[in-house]
Each structure stands twice: as C-alpha cells, then as structure tokens.
Design a protein that fits this description.
The two termini are about 30 Å apart. With about 350 residues, the chain is an alpha+beta fold. It is built from eight helices and 15 strands. It has one domain: q2cbj1_9rhob like domain (Jelly Rolls). The protein is globular and about 50 Å long. Helices cover about 20% and strands about 20% of the residues.
C-alpha cells in the first residue's frame, strides 16, 4: 500500500505486513490496514505493531474536557474500581458525553483521520484502590473484520505514571486471534492469562497525549494506587461505510456464533454492556452464523509467537496471579437514577467477571 493524493492504497506496504509472523491463519483472516488513518507511517506502525503514541489534545481542549467531566460526575468509589459512562442506564447522559466530547475533539480527529465515523466517546475513570486492575482482554468485535479494522484512541486527562493505572499492551497480538470476540464467546487465551501478563508493556503518557491502537491487541490496565482518580477519554473510530455488528453465542458448546447487524446508535442505546450482558441482544438483524472453532491458545504456542516476532517479556506486574476489578455503572452524580440502582442491586456479583471482553 502507498499514499497517493492523501489516500492509502495497497502495494508498497505488502512486504512490511509480512514482518508479523503467525503459525496459522484462521479462515485465511489477517488484519486489514486501517484505511481511515491519513498519515502513512502511522497507519503502517499501527498495522504492524498494533498501537502508536502521538500528541493529541492541547491545553485548551484538556481544560474543556476536564471541566465537563467535573460538572457531570460525583464519584465516591470505595476500594477502587472502574466507571464507564457507556455503562450507565441514563441514555441521555451517555449521548451527552458522546456528543460533547466529539465537539471538543472533532478538529483533532479530522487532522488524523479521513473517511471515518466517531462511533463512540466515553469517559473511563479508574478509582484508586485494590480493586482497580482491569482484566487481560481484547475488545469485542463491532464490524466486519474481513473488510475493516477498528481503532481506539485512549487519551488520559492527567499524566500516566507507574502508580495510577497505565494501559498495558502486548504488541502484534492483533494478528494472533480470531475476528469474532464477545462477552458470550470464550476467550482463546483465558487459560493462559498469567503467561500473557508477563508480556504486558505499560504505556506512560502525558496528559493530552494518546495511544491509538487496534482494538484487537491484548491489553489490560494496571492497578491505580495513586490516591487519586485516573481519568481517560476513549474514542472509537470506524471507517464511515462500515456497518456495526455484534457477536453472540449461546452457552452450549456446540452453539454457533451469531453475527448480528445493528444500527450505529446501538453502542449509545444498548443497556446490556453492563446489565444482563450475557443475554441475546434485544435488537438487531441476524446476518450469518459461524462455527466457534478457533483453537484455544496455550502458553507454548503464545511464547513461540512472541519469540518469532521479537515480543519481549516485560514482567511489569508484581502479582500476576489475581486481578481485582470492581465495575461501577451508576455512581452518585447527574447520571444516577433510582431505577438503575434498583436494577443493579439485583445483579449477581459474578457480573463483574462477565465484563472481561468489553472496553479497557
């Protein structure tokens, strides 16, 4: 692929793509170059490595987003945990967050991306405490990955340090797994999480810098023990023409994966990202079903792939055996509703274990 008249095409990147080595290709699938990225070198870096860091927001934009966040939220999270504006049952609040952040970021997004749509903007708060480490995961499938590739833009609103919950990533892992992921689909690496944790590389950014990453790379976020909330804005970027899909699988082992087409507003209106997250989507059109036949990844295979692709062990986590993450859907503040609180009280504690594959 090469850049011609500011449009990315295919040929001159071909050799570079082959730098990532795999042992097999599931259904002949490989990641597609991110067509929305204007800068050739940035597109190439993310395609091969899975992520890149860039300056993103200026001080004025940072102040505006922080001010909006402080106006909207009053969080008091005991023992630490994670709050996502996208999980709230207050849909007007969700849309307000999305649209306000979009208004602040639009000029910057237009600088970096073309032919794109900003599918979602959300706040992610990592409250300080022992229950603030996020699970090792990949983000869920939300478009046809045989045609397109998803992007996430993760922007901290304060400097990221070793103490306040850095995003940890394993480079090139977007090449290693299946294009079908979801909360109801067992992760192919769920039995080797401790092995994966040895390879997680923490990313330290200044406030307003961004890590732009392929949503399929294996990642987590580390524990926040700083004594203060860690605030992040996350943007989801899709090609403009890409349709929104969800993947769902019934719990029986022989059940197939259902690919369900949704409207773009689904991500702002669906309540099942947190509540009843293992139920079949109430909306959407079933398009196809596929076999759930992607093999589990064992430690020997994963470490062989890392050796082949020069992915080093980092050993950044002191305790790799356990992950403790408390999820908060409806904290006190403007987005709190009595109905949501009543619903939440009925949720079993195991709901926290169900959310490993959503957002980081």
């Amino acid at each position: 692929m090469y850049l011609k008249n500011n449009i990315i095409t295919f040929d001159s990147f071909k050799q570079k793509y082959m730098a990532v080595q795999t042992l097999s290709n599931y259904k002949n699938w490989k990641p597609i170059l991110h067509s929305v990225i204007k800068d050739k070198s940035l597109a190439e870096e993310i395609h091969e490595k899975g992520f890149a860091m860039r300056p993103f927001l200026n001080n004025s934009q940072l102040d505006e987003i922080r001010g909006f966040y402080e106006k909207e939220h009053q969080l008091q999270i005991k023992d630490g945990g994670m709050f996502y504006s996208l999980y709230s049952k207050d849909l007007e609040y969700r849309k307000r967050v999305h649209e306000t952040i979009n208004g602040i970021l639009k000029d910057t997004l237009d600088m970096h991306f073309a032919g794109y749509k900003n599918i979602v903007n959300t706040f992610i708060t990592k409250a300080s405490g022992p229950q603030s480490e996020f699970y090792v995961h990949q983000d869920t499938t939300a478009l046809d990955e045989f045609k397109y590739s998803p992007l996430s833009v993760w922007i901290p609103l304060q400097d990221i340090t070793p103490d306040n919950g850095a995003l940890g990533v394993i480079e090139k892992t977007h090449w290693f797994f299946s294009p079908y992921r979801g909360i109801t689909i067992p992760s192919p690496f769920q039995k080797i999480n401790n092995t994966l944790k040895e390879y997680l590389n923490p990313i330290y950014l200044k406030a307003g810098e961004a890590i732009i990453f392929d949503s399929r790379i294996v990642h987590n976020s580390l524990q926040n023990i700083s004594g203060s909330d860690r605030l992040v804005t996350l943007c989801g970027i899709f090609p403009k023409e890409a349709e929104f899909f969800t993947c769902f699988k019934e719990p029986l082992p022989e059940s197939k994966i259902e690919i369900i087409k949704q409207d773009d507003v689904y991500i702002l209106e669906n309540e099942s990202f947190y509540y009843d997250c293992h139920t079949r989507p109430a909306k959407g059109e079933l398009t196809i079903t596929v076999e759930n036949d992607f093999p589990e990844m064992d430690s020997v295979t994963f470490e062989k792939l890392c050796e082949m692709n020069s992915i080093p062990k980092v050993n950044a986590l002191e305790n790799i055996a356990n992950t403790h993450c408390q999820f908060i859907a409806e904290p006190t503040g403007i987005n709190f509703t009595p109905e949501a609180a009543t619903h939440k009280e009925k949720e079993p504690a195991t709901v926290f274990q169900k959310l490993k594959n959503v957002f980081k």
